[in-house]
Automatic annotation (TrEMBL):
It is a single-pass membrane protein. It is found in: Mitochondrion membrane. The chain crosses the membrane at residues 6-25. GO terms for biological process: proton motive force-driven ATP synthesis. It comes from the Eukaryota. F-type ATPases have 2 components, CF(1) - the catalytic core - and CF(0) - the membrane proton channel. Belongs to the ATPase protein 8 family. This is ATP synthase complex subunit 8. Keywords: CF(0), Hydrogen ion transport, Ion transport, Membrane, Mitochondrion, Transmembrane, Transmembrane helix, Transport. The lineage of its organism: Eukaryota, Metazoa, Ecdysozoa, Arthropoda, Crustacea. InterPro entries: ATP8_metazoa.
Length: 54
């Protein structure tokens, strides 16, 4: 098992950061089309005064 040097940690950090940013961007752009389903989910859950702020 090779020793982890700072460059490997940096690559690992950038890799996971890109995955996280990709998920956030995908959720942000799908939020516009998912607002109706989100409203339905809130109605089903009975949480009518719950507001989602991004």
């Amino acid at each position: 098992m090779p020793q982890m040097n700072p460059m490997n940690w940096l690559i690992l950090f950038l890799y996971f950061s890109s995955i996280l940013i990709g998920c956030v961007v995908k959720l942000h752009f799908s939020k516009l089309s998912a607002q109706e389903s989100l409203t339905e989910v809130k109605d089903v859950a009975g949480v009518k005064n719950f507001s989602v702020t991004v």
